[in-house]
Amino acid sequence: MSRVATAIGLVCLGTALQAQAKGERPEFAALVASGDLPPVAERVSDEPQVVDFGDVGTYGGKWRFGLASSGDDGTMRQHVGTNGLVRWHHNREDLIPNVARGWDVSEDGTEFTFYLRKGMRWSDGAPLTTEDVAFAINDVLLNSDYGALSTRFKAGEDPMSLEVIDETTFKIVFPRANGEFLGQMAREEGAAIVFYAKHYCATFHPDYNDNLQPLIDAAGASDWQTLFVQKCGDPTEGQRWLNPERPVLDPWVMENPLDGGATVVTLSANPYFWQVDAAGNQLPYIGALEGRIFQDPEAMTLAAIAGQFDFQARGIDAAANRPVLADNRDAGDYQLYEVVGVGGNYNWIQPNLNHKDPVIANLFNQKDFRIALSIGMDRQEVIDTALLGDGTPWQTGPWEGKKLYNERLATQYLEYDPEKANALLDGLGLDQRNDEGIRLMSDGRPARFLIDIRNTYPQIIDMIQVVRAQWAEIGIAIDLNVVDRSLHKLRSANADHDFTADSGNTTLSPGQLPSALLPIDDSSRHAPLWTEWYTTGGASGVEPPEHVKKRYEIWEAINSNVDPDRRVTLYQQLSDIAAEEFEAFGVTKNPSTYGVVKNGLMNVLPGMVSTSQWPSPANVFMPQSWYWNG
Predict the structure, then answer these.
(1) 518: left (phi over 0), alpha (psi -120 to 50) or beta
(2) Which among 145, 328, 347, 520 is least buried, having the fewest CB atoms inside 10 angstroms?
(3) Are 325 and 596 within 8 A, CB to CB?
(4) Are 451 and 362 contacting, i.e. CB atoms less than 8 angstroms apart?
């Protein structure tokens, strides 16, 4: 059976252990012997990161998994990871080194000095240096022609700046304190600083190539920005899996890419990967990854119970699947493992307050309308029906016992009261209904709306089906619009949606932006145009009302404050305003879900989490250290 690592510690050190690479994959050793690959000690850097994560393993084997669609880049990110300067320890509290071997922070919280690993290389063997960092920051992230700068690289509205000190040392500087910055660097977006290999990506950048048009035409791109994304990707987008030629810092490199025509995605071990085990053996142990693309959740579940996956949760973790997965453990030669939900709410329903239809926008911006929908939900019925009873009714925000817990934010308007919901809707002028019992809006159209859900969340789909029936009882009709992640994100960014239902990581956990408390990033799907106004400094988007601007002021004060007690006070002020406005609503606390792990797969640590704050198991639970027993 599968052996689960029990060690709680994770040693991630470099020169402190005087680490030297000694062992390598047999196929790499053969290439070294033939002169086609440098010795392993030259490939992993002078300061490799030592990952002491369970037992010292052996090389070989394949990791088979499933993808929910040809657009399921989320599973790819969860399994392969996105390697940034720092990452979170699996205790979810401590930041530890990653691509950077260490860092220093100035006392005033304005300067962050990072130290890269000497001799570290991209997957094609080219050195990783501060030239790559300067290219990523100055030519990509701070390039307004390429796109707007993410809030993760700002202190309030003030962007970062870069000071290069030497080939392996650089400093990120802000004009004021940025207490959130290190946590943001552990997120996928933060990895952008070490994501773009200059020697490769500069070929597709107009500042380095005066003859881009032939490349644009050959790629079928509309402009250099589209070409650049196709070739060099983005840490959080599906394009990063399109180009096998792109140099990476990941444990595995693309072979057969994730594109519209793929049926199977394959990756192979990175010969220049920069981590070693406690004995000095280069990671990863497993040499090949194979992701089979499915078109529906039922087919994925059938593959799982047939033993065709070695490690899988995403796409098969619906509560309804748990009994059949458990019943087929022996036949499929696997065990179940628990995935702990850490988000503040598993199903966070967001009405689009920036709707382009003025009648719908006016309705959605009525607080009584949102309250009516919230108390028009029988959350316990949703939990019992769709989650087999595994859940707790909840709005949003940190759970009880957390420093940032806000009772009103978490528990208001949870009671099921369809009589009061009907009265509120009547009071909004929605007192007329059509022959189907659907309420009529002010212009006579029925109150029928679409709710966008990603196809990788089967349990949320099941939950919304129950909510749909409940809301029909109070005269509000919804239809499910199940789409892939890229379309889901595009529709919400453009404010083309009516509602979205998504997993809400609203716990204010490390490195998380408070998107449930104010419109601040693309998770704030209730107000994408207010978010755009904030992130562009008012250059585009829609100017928000004063209560939103007040929250932006508080958020900037949080960012510029390094006193932890003062930050808690400011977060509570933010939560109080968000609770008063009640712009979106939740259904239940995150339940635990279950996946399958093949018997014989070793070093699989218990307590894995499901979160969008970092790729999991990659980056935190270190699948590069997994190996096959025998």
Answers:
(1) beta
(2) 145
(3) yes
(4) no
Alpha-carbon Rg for the chain, nearest whole angstrom, is 25
CATH number for the domain spanning 502: value is: 3.10.105.10
Q: Token pair 């059976």 is at which residue?
A: 1
Over the stretch 273-304, which tens digit does the pLDDT of each residue have? 999 999 999 999 999 999 999 988 899 999 99
- The three state secondary structure string of 203-215 is HHCCCCCCCCHHH
Shared-domain flag, residues 329 and 443: no
Which CATH number fits the domain that encloses residue 112? 3.40.190.10
Q: Which of 461, 518, 521 is nearest to 492 (CA)?
A: 521
Backbone angles phi, psi at 89, to 5 degrees: -65, 155
Same domain, 606 and 464: no
Verify that 271 and 299 share a domain, yes or no. yes
pTM reported for the whole predicted model: 0.77
Q: Indicate whether 51 and 162 sit together in one domain.
A: yes
387 and 254 housed in the same domain: no
Number of domains in the chain: 2
* Residue-wise pLDDT tens digits, 64-116: 999 988 888 889 998 998 899 999 887 766 889 999 999 999 988 899 999 99
Say what the pLDDT of residue 12 is: 42
State whether 453 and 530 are in the same domain.
Answer: yes
Q: At a CB cut-off of 8 Å and minimum separation 6, what does 12 contact?
A: 49, 50, 51, 96, 97, 98
Q: Is residue 286 part of a domain?
A: yes
Domain, as residue range, for 18? 11-195+233-338+597-628
Q: What is the DSSP letter of 321?
A: G
Nearest CA to 73 among 190, 240, 227? Answer: 240
Please give the angle made by the CA atoms of 563, 533 and 507, to the nearest 5 degrees.
Answer: 45
Burial of 336 (0-12, 13-18, 19+ CB in 10 A): middle
Please confirm whether the linkage preceding 545 is cis (ω < 30° from 0): no
DSSP state of 139: I
Q: Is the pLDDT of residue 26 over 90?
A: yes
